[in-house]
């Protein structure tokens, strides 16, 4: 190829050919690579033979001394040393485990639960009484039970009712009122009853819904000397006259308390 070579000279040609000059002739042979590692790296640019200064594992190049996990995982740890890949898997004890975890390297079978003569798998939920009021769950050989929470009721105790097959009580509809019950004196009035609660000027009536409605009477005095009758709300101007604490009937005459020479008469107008 236009280049003089000394006898015995050896050089490389493209295509991984090794050539030598012997007796005026050029002899070329394909380079034979001797690889002394299990996971060599491909030959570098311009080279013919793979190198053991790193590792090629599952199509991924690893540097010398690199520690990694293979793609299938399972907590196996591998290391690249002089082109060789060595992997170690964890040793798992035999038997069951309390609860498996996705990050757990060892596969195990969770322990089952034995409860009231029956066997339940790990994670199983069940109601031991069959009424749904109690929920139990099997966790690694142990059973945890909890009662169904009940809502708070805003009705009195005597209106609460627990039906068959129910876990929580409910409020009954209150019965229709038959009258009005007064807590202060214990008297019950029928619907439509009218009464005075102690003040003759106030009248109350028992409503259909059991409530009590009261109303006061406004009195209008039409005479200067009205008569107040006990138990009656408004003063009476037709029954007579009140004078100096005394009551006189209509047309009755009486001496004046201020002047004995004066005579007074009760006139209803």
TrEMBL record:
Transmembrane region(s): none
A single cellular component GO annotation: cytoplasm
Pfam families found in the cross-reference section: VWC, VWC2L_2nd
Domain VWFC: 1-53, 53-114, 111-172, 178-238
Keyword Flavoprotein in annotation: no
Superkingdom, natural source: Eukaryota
Keywords carried by this UniProt record: Glycoprotein, Secreted, Signal
Cellular location(s): Secreted
Keyword set includes Heme: no
One GO term of the biological process aspect: cellular response to virus
Alphabetized PANTHER family for the sequence: VON WILLEBRAND FACTOR C AND EGF DOMAIN-CONTAINING PROTEIN
Protein name per its UniProtKB record: VWCE protein
Name of the gene this protein is made from: Vwce_0
